[in-house]
């Protein structure tokens, strides 16, 4: 499968940071090559997870001003490694990331103005082509070390059931701030709870359930037709992925959801200051817990 990662959001909740740097490149902790906590940008963690799931082509949706920075970050830099040969421990994670980059092909997709998550995805249509794909927001990540495994499950479920989409959802106390689904229980899939999605609504005043969507999806290419139809008929100021999902459901599409619980990982977003603080603290606890035991002298 291919993947689309969105790096073009406005980032207004993270001002003034986002005047100069993208929120998707805020650092969280991940496992380093020696087993200890290592700081990595959120987008770095997302790309690693997608690579682990078997993705080989990734479309990065960006703003025009970020083209140079994003291209540089996801390009192998032999000169950087050369400058640090005398300090190999400092460059070990970069070497490992370079090995990941060698398996990947990136395509930059420009979104001139932030006109919604769905509009960003629609701009990547040519990059994806007529194939299934993962969609992953660049400002959130599944923490816990099993993100690639979860993505692979989502892809397998979509293919096995010939679904238009597989969503990853979690139970939240206050669903009014999220995209919320209403679903019917189905048999578990590879150990994860599964729901048949009947409806979805964005930030509802009266939520139909406590199941909130994370910004991780496995889609059939039918999503592009749905988004294009909504844009053509409704001409919304901002086109959301939820709009495309509702269109698919209204026109006979089949969509299921897998439930993320703490056995498999936890979803965290860095889209707000408090969200970033919680994500940073949780990622540090997880990375410390996964630290390899020290070797005896």
Secondary structure elements and pairings:
Blueprint (H helix, E strand, L loop, with lengths): L1 E5 L20 E5 L5 E5 H11 L4 E6 L4 H7 L4 H6 L4 H14 L3 E6 L6 H7 L1 H4 L4 E5 L2 E4 L3 H15 L3 E7 L7 E11 L2 E11 L8 E9 L2 H13 L6 H10 L4 E5 L6 E4 L3 H17 L8
Parallel strand pairs: 1-4, 1-6, 4-5, 8-12
Antiparallel strand pairs: 2-3, 6-11, 7-13, 8-11, 9-10, 9-11, 10-12
Helix pairs in contact: 1-7, 5-9, 8-9
Describe this structure in words.
This protein is an alpha/beta fold. It has one domain (2-289): Spore Coat Polysaccharide Biosynthesis Protein SpsA, Chain A (Alpha-Beta Complex). Helices cover 35% and strands 28% of the residues. The chain contains 10 helices and 13 strands. It has helices spanning 42-52, 67-73, 78-83, 88-101, 117-123, 125-128, 147-161, 222-234, 241-250, 273-289; strands at 2-6, 27-31, 37-41, 57-62, 105-110, 133-137, 140-143, 165-171, 179-189, 192-202, 211-219, 255-259, 266-269. The strands form 3 sheets. It has a 5-stranded mixed beta barrel with strand order 8-11-9-10-12. The chain has a two-stranded antiparallel sheet with strand order 2-3. The chain has a two-stranded antiparallel sheet with strand order 7-13. It is globular. The termini are far apart. The model has no long low-confidence stretch (mean pLDDT 92).
